[in-house]
Amino acid sequence: MAMYINGTGCISHQNTIDVDDFFENSRIDLLPLLPTQEPDYKDYVPTNMLRRMSHIIKMGVAAAKISLQQAETENVDAIITGTGLGCFEDTDKFLKTIIENNEQLLTPTSFIQSTHNTVAGQIALLIKCHNYNFTYTQQGLSFESALIDAAMFLNENKNSNILVGGLDEAIQPYYDLLVKAGHIKKQGDVITEIEKNKTKGFCLGEGASFFVLSTKKNKTTKTQIKGIKTFTAIKGSNDLQNKLTAFLQELNLSVDDVNLVLSGNSGNVEDDKLLNENNKHFFSKTDIAYFKTLCGEYFTASAFALWLASAIIEKQKIPKALTQEHSNKKDLKNILIIDQYRNTEYSFMCVSSC
Amino acid sequence: MVFVTGIGIISAIGKNVSETLSSLLESRTGIGKINHLQTIHKDNYVAGEVNYSLQELENLAGLKNSNYNRTTLLSLLATQEALISAEIKDISTHRTGFISASSVGGMCHSELLYKDFLERKPHKNFIDTHYTGSHATDVAKHFGIIDYVTTISTACSSAANAIMLGARLINNNILDRVVVGGTDALCKFTFNGFNTLMILDKEWCKPFDNNRKGLNLGEGAAYLVLESERVVKAENKKPLAILSGYGNANDAFHQTASSPDGQGAYAAIQKALEVANLSPIKIDYINAHGTGTANNDSSEAAALQNIFKENIPPFSSTKAFTGHTLAAAASIEAVISILSIQQKTIFPNLNCVTHMQDTKLFPVTSLQKNAELNHVLSNSFGFGGNCSSLIFSKN
Fold first, then answer.
1. Residue ranges per domain, chain A?
2. Catalytically annotated residue among B109, B142, B324, B375
3. Fold of the CATH domain A3-352
4. Which residues contact B37 (CB under 8 A, 6 or more apart)?
5. Looking at CB atoms within 10 Å, which of A14, A265, A271, B97 has the fewest?
6. pLDDT tens digits, residue range B146-197?
7. 3-class DSSP state of B339
8. SS3 (DSSP) at B340
9. Domains of chain B by range and CATH?
10. Per-residue pLDDT reduced to its tens digit, A52-71
11. Contacts of B98 in chain A (CB under 8 A)
């Protein structure tokens, strides 16, 4: 069954709101912390609601609104989100006050906005959507879980329009915790060719990417999602190759049909080993681009990759910032996204023209 | 059709199904003095604690130096019982998934280690196990479940959504068998959160009583094993119940409060009835969400009145036994609903004495035996407007 992308909205480290130049003027400015470029949120959210919203809620609601506008729809039959970290800013605020004030003088605002489903709930409130509403949190597979649910929902409810998003925030206190835990790349170790890294750690990114999906093609349709699959364990290179072969077979595609691979290298030499090995052998003749050079590493970076893949096919252009070869000659039909999170959770997604 | 072939539970009223059943049959609440949670409020409030320390829980699970937090250990223990109850010896014989639910995951460790972590040295139990989905990764790995693993976090309706998702994964032929449920450990974070909202009753909660003052928090975990018709037939299994209906909707009214007319609850129940292909009159008993807060109970009562009109089935909230176990509540109450069907017994809504003024509804307040229960509805609602309902039917 087809899953058409009829609208997208993305807030990321790049300018993904005004994408006419499609990163023509953007540069890769990898730093250990890669915050989003903020739009003027007033364009998307009523000011009275905006005041109380944390960073992730603003990003999520705005990206959702943009995707709905693009799809020329005001309401949907389902809202499904995935977030690995949840609403950390509010969680952190409430937690720190508990610790610092020894459980006294607390106010409820940050607590009530700390639950993982806050963004999906706020979108429902904003567009008055009483329909199906789900929030997933499974580290690096949070967005993929939402997308698998979306595919089932469209299968169960033909002719429906649904909103699916992946989002995570990289606020300073979280970054500080990751630095302390040794997960963040040291400033001097950051190199722009992410796949050539010889050091540990990653650059922390953040963002929100939303999609209006439907079984029906219409005038706003951009691309389609052909397949999605997740794995919680990969046993080495052979296992990964077997799983990739099976995935492509299920979609009736061969390796030669894949015009571009978006590879989820995080820049951590240990975590990327398997991906690099796989890419070298399995995709020796296929163009490979490393999307986390644009958005950084975060739990739902794969949602950014899906946005990017869809935009590349729609514009028939691979952004300069993404590839040295800059091959915009051939017909871009199928893009395969292979993502990994700390070399434990893997996912495949295939985006195709329609 | 989706069958329930195994159940496992741990909460304030027992560390397994048989202890839980005894407490329910003897109307013995698990809510009392706070012993394990190190909060400054411990002497002023009651809660439904699982009566074991972290070390004791680890011993119960037969583990040593696992470094698992309370949320993970509760999840592991209930999952273990569910798998044994379903007589599953080899996970790999069918496509098997693990769908869990939690509201705060590793917070029970995070809140103790955060300060030390920043000021001194990193601790292995933080930050990598803080994530709400971390417990699912660990528990699935422990039991060798690999075909699909995910976690749902929709506040107090989480486990209902995990159960619903499991059924849909089977109905969509993605899985043959799936362990579904939720887990939440008591922690200072949620305790203080609910306290600042001023919806905690300092004494035993009184769901659906006119003088109700709020909820009691609890902790625990419960899981069901769901299996497809094909697996049940092939293995000649005797299912405990059928998961016949499920519905999910959003109240879209307020971030934390429920709408006065219970619009979201109404829609969730309506959808569950549609999936089960049942008219409201067929429901024999409702295990209500019934938290004991003024807002929830009147909103839920309004929704029940709108669905069932004059024929409201017997209903009770069992939260006065277990406390409100948040993301685990719906799976704990799913197990209790299944026990109701099996035992032909309606477990009472404890502590309810005075009729609510704004409605004619009054729950079952004493144990009702010999109740022929063919279809039981279980409701769960949460922050963010999330409302979910499940229907369990006699096999």
1. 3-352
2. B324
3. Peroxisomal Thiolase; Chain A, domain 1 (3.40.47)
4. B47, B49, B186, B187, B188, B191
5. A271
6. 999 999 999 999 999 999 999 999 999 999 999 999 999 999 999 999 999 9
7. helix
8. helix
9. 2-234 (3.40.47.10), 243-393 (3.40.47.10)
10. 999 999 999 999 999 999 99
11. none
